[in-house]
Write a structure and sequence with these properties.
The chain is α+β, with helices and mostly antiparallel strands and 168 residues long. It is built from one helix and seven strands, in the order αβββββββ. Helices cover 31% and strands 27% of the residues. The radius of gyration is 26 Å and the shape is elongated.
Length: 168
């Protein structure tokens, strides 16, 4: 004679499933504001990286071409132009900032040596020849919402500050 044992059925009960779904919903509600900050910070950082890349491109093109090259920003558009002859500038590259990010209007001309043109006009504050800050409409820059800023030093150094509010 065989002895037959019955195993208890495996799986979740309806009550266990509802408790798990309720806990997950509370966690999502608690994380939502932080997720929004994360998304906004990511968009701003991506815009800052794009702006820094274009500034480095403009500087390297000025050196390579041995001509004045201009970097312009206006809203979400970044342009790099050969500006040796201001009356007949040639567009080298144009990029658009993604995710609604905007850049303050600015123009920086790089000399054939890679320096910003306006560095010899007057001693710049903290040796910064140009500053371009980024923003996202509807977002107030703070410690949680970090709005980056591009700084071009009088000596030609190009750096991206993580937050323009914290000693960029």
């Amino acid at each position: 004679m065989r002895h037959v044992t019955h195993r208890a059925p495996r799986g979740l009960t309806l009550i266990e499933l509802l408790v798990a779904i309720t806990i997950a919903a509370f966690l999502l509600v608690a994380a939502a504001p932080h997720f929004s900050d994360y998304v906004n910070n990511s968009r701003l950082r991506e815009g800052g990286t794009t702006l820094q890349t274009e500034a480095l491109f403009a500087q390297s093109e000025a050196i390579k071409r041995n001509r004045i090259v201009r970097l312009t920003t206006n809203g979400s558009t970044i342009q790099v132009l050969e500006a040796q002859d201001v009356a007949a500038m040639t567009l080298l590259r144009e990029r658009t900032l993604a995710g609604g990010v905007t850049a303050a209007a600015a123009t920086v001309d790089f000399t054939p040596r890679g320096y910003p043109v306006n560095r010899a006009v007057a001693p710049p504050v903290d040796f910064v020849a140009a500053a371009v800050d980024l923003a996202l409409p509807g977002v107030t820059c703070s410690a949680e919402q970090r709005c980056p800023g591009l700084r071009i030093d009088a000596g030609g150094g190009i750096r991206l500050c993580g937050n323009k509010l914290s000693g960029c």
